[in-house]
Predict the 3D structure of the following.
Amino acid sequence: MATLNQLVAKAKESVFFTAPVLERDLARFLKDEEQHIRRLASEAVKKQVKHIYWVGSGNSWRNLYSGKYLLDKFTTISSDYFMSYELTWRQPRRLDGNAMAFFASFSGNTEDTINALRYAKSRGARTIAIVNQPDCLMGKEADEVIPFHSKALYILPLAAAYLFSLEVARLQGAKEVQKTIDGLFALPPILGRLYRDEEARARELAHQYKDERLFYTLASGPLFGLGYKFGLTVFMENMRVNGSFIETSEFRHGPAEMLDREQPTLVFLIGTDESRPISERVVAFARQHGAKVITYDYADYGVDDPLLAPFVLMVPLQWFAVYSVLLRGIEDLDARAFMGHGSMSQGKGVTWP
């Protein structure tokens, strides 16, 4: 039987465990795609695009959430983020030739997102696919392709959404975003350091919570998308436990009542942005009423810009997930019980979910 150390060594080669390659691949991606992404931003501003859509499913939906967050915060261009099939069902009137639509999928062969991309094209929108390899279905059908050539399926599309939105803001005169753009390009060695430094704490926490069957993940502000990712598309998908995601301030509006009779495990992602005071209040309340609390506090990681929190906290969270998966007897981090086997997908060339 393999030892835990041997399983961790094997895990570093898996598609699921992306932290080992982030330093190298993020630096390469930003170098390779910077001018392409800046050109798309310039196009959006010069052509006076009226609306921008961010579309995906699962993990690839939430890594685009920040695109809307940043556009709302710093620009005058309206935007929305949609789950892929929701776009086709809602049929928004603003999806037309004056719109630009980004679609993300690691495989580029996701049923939901292919159908959404085709629908957007039928409405005349300019379509951009963010995919691992450009020769996938989405890569062949989109007007523009941003390939990332890496297993870093969350961080690299996130970087694309950040750079595009921040560049739009810069071109519109928002000088304050230059700090975040510079911080984005300075991230690779920081993520490399975190990968090397955060293993020990993750291993200890995973052992402490190895028998827990229910995790609620709570996050707000810039960390909202990352919280969703881990609450639903990591803890449930990979650890195969019960879980859910709750926006932190919303915990006070109903979910808090569970603490009258239950002591669940709550995983808090705490930023240094405007959401911090509410997060601190909810953490204190949860502890006071007997919840088992795990905190990932961005203030502990030495990066000043509040907007870069999802890049930084992804690394310690992923280490925790890796150890938690292995301690539950799942030795192949890339294996899925149902997803990727064709049991839930339809369409020629479609491989996911």
Remarks:
- The chain has a mean pLDDT of 95.
- The first strand starts at residue 51 and ends at 56.
